[in-house]
């Protein structure tokens, strides 16, 4: 499996939520030290072991997914969580979608739940997840980008020391990591965390 890895320049992103940009959520507190993208693939077609094994390699568990669950996915999502003994809670609800936090304790639960999150994230509803701790809340914030000036509900993340947050990028064509974990401090150390069947190439963002 071939992927591209590149660090985002600082001007690519803001702590303010940016509809259509980076990122469609808010960042509270200090910005993360390392922000990089994995590209060159379409997540629904990827090797199904890629992300679960990567999370296991970086000792991510427990993992906490924060996602916008569209109303037409909600019943299936709740049934899947019940079947797999997965804990979840809702941070907000409206007629179009609900914002949930889902606790994933091990790689087996991750394998069960990740396909539905791939489908949701690849449809450009928000799917992000954190390592080891639940960092998420919902607040009213001012948007940038396509919703410039709009005040509305926003998922807010605060990234802790040595922790990471991952976001399924637009249309499912990338995974972006925001991290203070030194495992992600260089391209070489990122590559060391990947499963052996993943063949990375370094790319540059200008």
Q: Give the proportion of residues in helices.
A: 10-25%
Strand/helix succession: EEEEHEHEEHEEEEEEHE
N-to-C CA distance? 25 Å
Strand content: 35-45%
The number of domains is 1
Rg over CA atoms: 16 Å
Report the count of strand segments: 14
* Spatial order of the strands forming the largest sheet: 6-7-5-8-12-13-4-1-14
Total helical elements = 4
Classification by helices and strands: alpha+beta
Largest β-sheet summary: 9 strands, mixed
Low-confidence stretches: none
- Could you report the average pLDDT, rounded to the nearest whole number? 95
What is the overall shape?
A: globular
Describe the model.
By secondary structure, the protein is α+β, with helices and mostly antiparallel strands. 21% of the residues lie in helices and 36% in strands. It has one domain (2-202). A hairpin with a 6-residue loop joins strand 12 and strand 13. Helix 1 (50-57) packs across helix 3 and helix 2 runs antiparallel to helix 3 (107-122). The longest helix has 16 residues, at 107-122. The two termini are 25 Å apart.
Give a quick rundown of the structure.
The protein is 21% helix and 36% strand. It is an alpha+beta fold and 206 residues long. The longest helix is centred in the middle third of the chain and has 16 residues, at 107-122.
List keywords for this structure.
about 210 residues, alpha+beta, nine-stranded mixed β-sheet, three-stranded mixed β-sheet, 4 helices
Topology:
Blueprint: E1 2-7, E2 18-19, E3 26-27, E4 34-39, H1 50-57, E5 63-70, H2 71-83, E6 87-93, E7 97-104, H3 107-122, E8 127-131, E9 136-142, E10 144-145, E11 151-157, E12 164-168, E13 175-179, H4 187-193, E14 199-202
Parallel strand pairs: 1-14, 2-10, 3-11
Antiparallel strand pairs: 1-4, 4-13, 5-7, 5-8, 6-7, 8-12, 9-11, 12-13
Helix pairs in contact: 1-3, 2-3
């Amino acid at each position: 499996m071939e992927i591209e890895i590149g660090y985002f320049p600082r001007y690519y992103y803001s702590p303010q939520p940016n509809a259509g940009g980076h990122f469609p959520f808010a960042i509270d507190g200090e910005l993360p030290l390392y922000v990089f993208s994995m590209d060159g693939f379409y997540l629904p077609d990827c090797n199904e072991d890629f992300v679960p094994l990567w999370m296991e390699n970086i000792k991510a568990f427990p993992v906490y997914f924060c996602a916008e669950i569209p109303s037409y996915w909600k019943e299936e999502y709740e049934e899947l969580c019940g079947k797999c003994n997965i804990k979840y809670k809702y941070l907000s609800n409206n007629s179009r979608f609900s914002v949930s936090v889902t606790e994933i304790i091990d790689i087996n639960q991750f394998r069960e739940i990740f396909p539905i999150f791939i489908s949701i994230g690849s449809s450009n509803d928000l799917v992000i997840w954190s390592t080891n701790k639940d960092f998420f809340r919902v607040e009213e914030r001012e948007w940038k980008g396509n919703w410039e000036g709009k005040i509305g509900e926003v998922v807010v993340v605060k990234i802790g020391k040595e922790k990471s947050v991952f976001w399924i990028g637009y249309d499912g064509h990338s995974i972006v990591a925001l991290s203070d974990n030194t495992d992600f401090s260089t391209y070489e150390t990122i590559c060391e965390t990947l499963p052996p069947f993943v063949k990375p190439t370094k790319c540059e963002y200008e």
